[in-house]
From TrEMBL:
Protein name: Adenylate cyclase
Domain of life: Bacteria
InterPro entries per record: Adenylyl_cyclase_CyaB (IPR008173), CYTH-like_dom_sf (IPR033469), CYTH_domain (IPR023577)
Record lineage: Bacteria, Pseudomonadati, Bacteroidota, Bacteroidia, Marinilabiliales
Gene3D superfamilies, sorted: Hypothetical Protein Pfu-838710-001 (2.40.320.10)
Species of provenance: Marinifilum breve
Domain CYTH positions: 2-169
Amino acid sequence: MPVTIEIKAYCKNQDRVREILKSNNADFKGVDHQIDTYFHAKSGRLKLREGKIENNLIHYFREDTKTSRESKVNLYQTKADSTLKEILEKAMGSRCVVDKKREIYFIDNVKFHVDDVKGLGKFVEIEAIDMDRSIPKEKLQEQCNFYIKLLEINAKDLISQSYSDLLEQNSLFNQILIEE
């Protein structure tokens, strides 16, 4: 089970983030239109990611904190246009759908996402990844902190929730407004 130390933040200037990543020789993997369908899970979070670059069933545990946080992730690579989504929806029911355009970059073991999420806005994510548990957590934390500074991410822009949580909150808020 891979371990990551990660952050998510609102991003007011994605062009600046791209500039910094490119000037640090980040490996650009491409732009992916991703649909993440979240399912009801007894523990952790379960989502099916459907895209052109990444297609995975993802089960993960993560604390909702604004600072960098540890995630324990199980990934199962899927195929585009599989029937898995239909099976999971029938068996578990879907909770939320996140529609986003994601730019994917890597510097060594650190993955960067420059995201535009439908209904939420623009974000940046940093994930210091240890695929085989050979990197000490302290080193992953140092990497994450280094890139927070390098990308000029302000502490007030850090967010603790997943995109699905934010969308559900927006939906609930809008429903309350309609009812009033």
